């Protein structure tokens, strides 16, 4: 699906995970740290033909993990609270849930390749476009394009946090026109503030993602409060 590729493309160029979470996973037995704490919430709004969706990403400066929360995650089960943490150091995705009066965590293995994909970026042209200001932050504009799609995005380094520390540089083949110096510039601080995806052949796939807030927070998850699904059902650890 081209919208999925648009997300992987954005990660590849900006080292930023946007919203794609639907990849195959295997159970993990890794031991989680006692606490995951966060100091910023990065809020994204996606607009497409069927409406709007909101996504909240929780970041911690200097840490290689991030949290994710969205009303869409618990839409089918309104009585269940869910919060996901992706820990790149451990190679783990941890889903923290509160359901039926129990606190449960499900851990799955995570690979950076699951997020980046095997797409050959050299098939795309990459150009720098005019900059603009978004939420008070000066953003550089970039555009990537081939015969099928065009992705326009704006990124800023005028922020204290980034996804770069989580995923690191991972580009298979640089697209034509891509300047490696851009990667260096956003190595420590860099967030996508807006992305416009255009499917040249199927307009129904068009979408826009925009940052609607970057707020401070003191939210944390105490992992010791969460047990396994088996323990919640009385089946031991």
Question: Keywords for this structure?
Answer:
globular; mainly beta; two-stranded antiparallel ribbon; 237 residues; single chain; 13 strands; 14% helix; disordered N terminus; 11-stranded antiparallel beta sheet
Give the amount of beta strand, in percent.
35-45%
Give the helices and strands as they follow along the chain.
HEEEEEEEHEEEHHEEEH
The major sheet is characterized as: 11 strands, antiparallel
Give the CA-CA distance, first to last residue.
39 Å
Strand order of the largest sheet: 7-6-5-4-3-2-12-11-10-9-8
Output the number of helix runs: 5
Radius of gyration: 18 Å
The parts where pLDDT drops under 50 for at least 5 residues are: 1-25, 114-118
Beta strands, count: 13
Structural class estimated from helices and strands: mainly beta
Quick recap:
The chain is mainly beta and 237 residues long. It has five helices and 13 strands.
Write the layout of secondary structure elements.
Blueprint: H1 2-14, E1 35-37, E2 40-48, E3 51-59, E4 65-69, E5 81-87, E6 92-99, E7 102-109, H2 112-116, E8 125-134, E9 137-145, E10 149-156, H3 164-167, H4 180-185, E11 191-199, E12 207-216, E13 220-222, H5 229-232
Antiparallel strand pairs: 1-13, 2-3, 2-12, 3-4, 4-5, 5-6, 6-7, 8-9, 9-10, 10-11, 11-12
């Amino acid at each position: 699906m081209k919208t999925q590729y648009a997300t992987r493309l954005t990660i590849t160029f900006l080292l930023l995970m946007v919203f794609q979470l639907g990849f195959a996973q295997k159970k993990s037995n890794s031991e989680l740290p006692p606490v995951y704490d966060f100091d910023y919430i990065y809020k994204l709004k996606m607009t497409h033909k069927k409406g709007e969706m909101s996504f909240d990403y929780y970041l911690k400066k200097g840490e290689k993990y991030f949290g994710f929360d969205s009303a869409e995650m618990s839409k089918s089960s309104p009585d269940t609270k869910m919060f996901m943490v992706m820990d790149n150091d451990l190679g783990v995705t941890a889903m923290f849930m509160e359901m039926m009066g129990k606190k449960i965590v499900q851990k799955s293995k995570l690979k950076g390749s699951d997020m980046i994909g095997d797409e050959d970026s050299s098939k795309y042209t990459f150009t720098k476009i005019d900059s603009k200001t978004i939420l008070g932050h000066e953003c550089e504009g970039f555009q990537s394009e081939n015969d099928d799609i065009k992705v326009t995005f704006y990124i800023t380094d005028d922020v204290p946090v980034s996804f770069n520390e989580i995923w690191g540089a991972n580009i298979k083949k640089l697209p034509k026109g891509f300047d490696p110096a851009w990667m260096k510039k956003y190595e420590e601080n860099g967030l996508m503030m807006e992305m416009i995806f255009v499917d040249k052949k199927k307009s129904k796939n068009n979408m826009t993602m925009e940052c609607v807030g970057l707020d401070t927070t003191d939210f944390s998850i105490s992992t010791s409060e969460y047990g396994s699904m088996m323990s919640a059902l009385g089946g031991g650890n």
